[in-house]
Design a protein that fits this description.
Elements lengths: L2 H16 L2 H21 L7 E7 L4 H11 L4 E5 L4 H9 L5 E5 L3 H4 L6 E4 L4 H31 L21 H22 L4 H5 L3 H5 L5 H30 L8 H26 L2 H18 L12 H7 L3 H15 L3 H26 L5
Parallel strand pairs: 1-2, 1-3
Antiparallel strand pairs: 3-4
């Protein structure tokens, strides 16, 4: 292997990138635009759920329950003088998520009864969260009322036998942004890396310049390493900008090792760029390479990496497929480094799989070139 020939290919490819301002601008600006768009627009936090309360009892006890809902940041009580038609109209028009109906004999039912909650189930995720929030508020209110009633009867202070002391170890504020942004960086890098390199071999065949390379003594490995190195500089710049935006723009805590972050990013970028080169070498068409690169990078990285959707909740077949998605391992590493501060000792297996993927894909890309360059 000749590093002189690799350097020559790198210089030629790098100059080609620099002299194309549109492609260069796309490669540098799209990651920041995507990070800003998803980071600000995509949120899993469920707060200020709009609701209407139908109070049929209008007693001090029912007003205390209403106050419990009004005093919570999780709810936005639009009206406390609603009725069944207003609740139905609000749900049908998507103005409220749920309606709370307090029965006329609510005070007596505190001895043992229920309030009615009418939920909009068209968004099952929001409905499930709203149901959990409402149940928690009602249960806490019922416990407080029970303790007060026992105090009045016995004159003694009543304390629950068991209390949950909750301590959140990672992401103390439970902000979805701290969960989304570290997982979004691998998705963006996978898309950009695959799309950039998917168009680096195919144009050589379409423009007829590959024949000139065929007449040189350059080897397939040298050719691909030279091209990959040029795009690696661009990918490294995207990685640094994304990390800086995550830390300083979105204030995501970075608790782990920068050295391990750099090593894992290097291996992931190498594998992602190799995948794009493999697609370009296999298709020999810019249009097909672009389409295959987009489909094979965006959809798997977004849907099957655990970026938003938990892999453990997927069907068995899909969980098996996720084992071949490199973004899955890099997402795990990024979240571990950012939020948990863990390193090589904990995530060595994920790093190993990234390395194996990168080596296999690069080897396949070289093998695709061998019959053409002899």
């Amino acid at each position: 292997m000749s590093f002189r020939r690799i350097r020559a290919v790198f210089r030629k490819e790098f100059l080609h990138i620099v002299r194309d301002p549109r492609s260069l601008g796309m490669a540098l600006l799209i990651p920041i635009l995507m990070l800003g768009l998803f980071g600000y627009a995509l949120s899993l936090d469920v707060n200020h759920l709009p609701a209407i309360i139908y109070d049929q009892d209008n007693s001090p006890a029912s007003r205390d329950l209403i106050q419990a809902f009004q005093g919570s940041t999780y709810f936005d009580v639009r009206s406390v003088s609603g009725d069944y038609p207003s609740i139905e109209k609000g749900i049908n028009s998507n103005k409220i998520v749920f309606g709370l109906v307090i029965p006329p004999d609510f005070t007596r039912l505190l001895e043992g009864g229920n309030v009615q909650v009418l939920l909009d189930g068209s968004d099952s995720n929001t409905a499930s969260i709203a149901m959990a929030y409402v149940t928690t508020v009602v249960n806490l209110y019922a416990l407080e009322r029970t303790a007060q009633r026992l105090d009045q009867r016995t004159g003694m202070h009543v304390k629950p036998l068991t209390e949950a002391q909750v301590r959140v170890w990672y992401n103390n504020d439970l902000k979805s942004r701290n969960f989304i942004v570290p997982g979004l960086i691998p998705v963006i890098l996978m898309i950009i890396a695959a799309l950039l390199t998917s168009l680096c071999i195919a144009p050589e065949w379409e423009n007829g310049t590959m024949e000139q390379l065929l007449s040189t003594p350059i080897r397939p490995t040298e050719l691909l390493l030279g091209k990959l190195s040029a795009f690696f500089v661009l990918g490294a710049a995207d990685t640094v900008m994304s990390l800086l935006a995550a830390v300083f723009l979105f204030n995501v805590p970075l608790k782990g090792s920068l050295a391990f972050l750099g090593l894992s990013s290097f291996i992931f970028l190498f594998g992602a760029l190799s995948w794009g080169i493999f697609i370009s070498a296999a298709t020999k068409s810019q249009l097909i390479a672009y389409q295959v690169g987009l489909l094979s990078s965006f959809l798997p990285a977004f849907l099957l990496s655990g970026f938003i959707y938990a892999v453990d909740n997927m069907p068995t077949v899909i969980r098996f497929i996720t084992n071949f998605i490199p973004a899955k391992y890099y997402v795990t590493i990024m979240k571990g480094i950012f939020l948990k501060g863990v390193g090589m000792k904990v995530m060595w297996l994920e790093l190993l799989w990234l390395t194996v993927y990168a080596v296999i894909i690069f080897t396949l890309a070289v093998s695709k070139m061998k019959p053409k360059i002899a």
